[in-house]
Amino acid sequence: MNYFFGVAQSVLPDGRSLGIVMNDGIGNIRDGVSKVSSEDFLTLDGKAYKMHVTELTETDANDLLSQKHLKTVGDSEASCDLLYTPKFKKIA
């Protein structure tokens, strides 16, 4: 399992600021299913919203340029589902 940390920031068309922080590969597993700690959150117009734990799904864990899917799991008012596809050409 790799550790990933992703940050995205933008200004929305209505002028509000948006920031998202998601990571996977950190935290403890208490019951074999759920992680008990995370640093996942988003900010909207200066207000922070805690998100549930993020899970990372990779098409190839040994390939840093493979597609990554970051998705919060569990019930939360603030959740996120991001698909990251690198645009760089792979050089053998």
Tell me what the structure shows.
This protein is mainly beta and 92 residues long. It has one domain (4-84). The chain is built from no helices and seven strands. The protein has strands at 4-11, 17-24, 41-44, 47-50, 54-58, 68-72, 81-84. It has a four-stranded antiparallel beta sheet, with no helix packed on it. A three-stranded antiparallel beta sheet has the order 5-6-7, with no helix packed on it. The model has no long low-confidence stretch (mean pLDDT 78).
- The total of helices stands at 0
User: What is the overall shape?
Assistant: globular
Q: What is the element string, with H for helices and E for strands? A: EEEEEEE
Helix percentage range = under 10%
User: What does the oligomeric state look like here?
Assistant: single chain
| SS content category | mainly beta
Question: Strand-residue fraction?
Answer: 35-45%
Overall pLDDT metric: 78
Largest sheet: 4 strands, antiparallel
Q: What is the C-alpha radius of gyration, as a whole number of Å?
A: 15 Å
- End-to-end gap: 23 Å
Note poorly predicted spans: none
Tell how many strands the DSSP assignment holds.
Answer: 7
Strand order of the largest sheet: 1-2-3-4
Number of domains: 1
